[in-house]
Amino acid sequence: MNVNETLLFFRQNMKFTQKEVLPYHDTSAYSRIESGKREIKMSELTAILNKLSISPEEFISHSSLDDDQKKFRQLFEYCATHLANQSKKKELLHYYNQLENIEKQSLKERSNFIAIKVFFSNHWSEVEQVTKEGLNDSFTYLSKKSYYVQYDYTLMSNIIFLLEEQQAELLIRRAIPIKDEENRNTVTKQFAYNLITNLITSKLYSKEYGKVQDYLVLAKKQNPKNKNYKYQMTVSYLENLYLYLTKGDYTYIKSVYDYIHILHTIGEEQLSIMTEKEVEQLTLARTDSPINTMKVN
């Protein structure tokens, strides 16, 4: 539903008349808003939500303010898990070609275009890899900003592992911790959270433990009131894994497996399996690993 359709939905379901919803305005004016013939002002929307006692979050969750992007994400995710589906592939490639022909892409368009390139260039011949020029253009754009929004974080997440180390480091130091976190929406915060935890994981694989330590410090500066328990648990898991790999203390690996057990208990079965495989890959190189000890026994 768009904004006017959402207004109609709530008003009718809550049994309000048009006059009751916006009492100090002409009824015909409100009718034009609901029918989509007139744009609604922010002051008017605020007054309506107050009258209906609806939070902005609940209203937005019912309205499709960015329906096209929602459809893109659904199509992208479907194609990523059904690479051989030709009809959906054709649909995504059509959108990709449209983006490619736009001379000056918006931030959202650039972010989507790069996302398609980064993932599908490894699977579909029709999609080319991100060029060095394209990477540098995206880096230059991001490096000039001091306040990052959702599509900045999306773009950054897609290119960060392709950048030169100095470029990646500069962006991370600017983007993490996310500024103004209390006022950010859930999706934007999740991209910021995933960006730093994915980086920490990659540095664990490459055994760049100094970087891991630095990034853990940055990661802990986010989610200051621990409202996002999943993020808090993930950072704690990564820290315990790092401490085990660098110190070899069994206490840390026990905490890692406690985390995996919790994932299993709360129904995150796939994530628990993936995490256990990740731990095995990272710890089997240690000759004193408790996993090795258990396998020998």
From TrEMBL:
CDD domains: HTH_XRE. The lineage of its organism: Bacteria, Bacillati, Bacillota, Bacilli, Lactobacillales. Residues 28-59 form the HTH cro/C1-type domain. It comes from the Bacteria. InterPro entries: Cro/C1-type_HTH (IPR001387), HTH-type_regulator_Rgg (IPR053163), Lambda_DNA-bd_dom_sf (IPR010982), TPR-like_helical_dom_sf (IPR011990). One of its GO terms (molecular function) is DNA binding. It comes from Enterococcus ureasiticus. This is HTH cro/C1-type domain-containing protein. Coiled coil: none annotated.
